[in-house]
Amino acid sequence: MAIYFDDHMPDTLFCKEIFSETIIPVCTSEYAQKYRLDRAIENLASATLLHDNQAWDYDSNEDEWQVWVKANQVENISISSISSIGFDRSDLAMIAAISHVGVAMGRLSLVKDRLQSGELITPFPESQVLCKQKYYVATLPDKHS
User: Fold this and answer.
1) What pLDDT is stored for residue 74 in this prediction?
2) Burial of 6 per CB tally in 10 Å (0-12, 13-18, 19+)
3) DSSP H helices in the chain
4) What SS3 class is residue 130?
């Protein structure tokens, strides 16, 4: 049995959706203040973006950020031109965000406790995006009963 986060379920496995996911930018309040992220979404251009290079596949790079920008209709920000650091796991991007390194694209189900505690904030609270990717459990076809 395995749990996947993807936009399609393999035909060769028995898969059952567990839940949907929402992405949202997160950082520390200190970082948001330093870059005045609360004043204008365009100030994100001077920050450092943190992202999971393998969020949706093995080479998704800044795809989460691109989806967020498109969904929030932020045409005047070019994600590719913003300073960024990529990781091979989303938890490493969160650790970097907690350490005041930049703004990470957080999966709400994984960062909600850190948001509630104030360890992380979302500088753009109205900018949540429901992903087409979902969490699902997968087993071999004859092992699902």
Assistant:
1) 83
2) middle
3) 29-34, 63-71, 90-98, 108-117
4) strand
Q: Is the pLDDT of residue 30 over 90?
A: yes
Cα torsion angle, 44, 46, 47, 53, sign:
positive
Please tell me the pTM assigned to this model. 0.81
Contacts of 130 (CB under 8 A, 6+ apart): 20, 21, 22
Q: Residue 22 and residue 43: Cα distance in Å, rounded?
A: 22
Q: How far apart are CA 105 and CA 44, in angstroms?
A: 12
Distance between CA 111 and CA 26 in Å, rounded? 8
Give the list of residues 6+ apart from residue 45 with CB closer than 8 angstroms, or none.
77, 78, 81, 82
CA dihedral 59, 63, 64, 65 (to 10 degrees): 130
Token couple for 18:
């567990």
Task: Write the CB contacts of 29 (distance below 8 Å, at least 6 apart in sequence).
Answer: 118, 121
Q: How far apart are CA 65 and CA 63, in angstroms?
A: 5
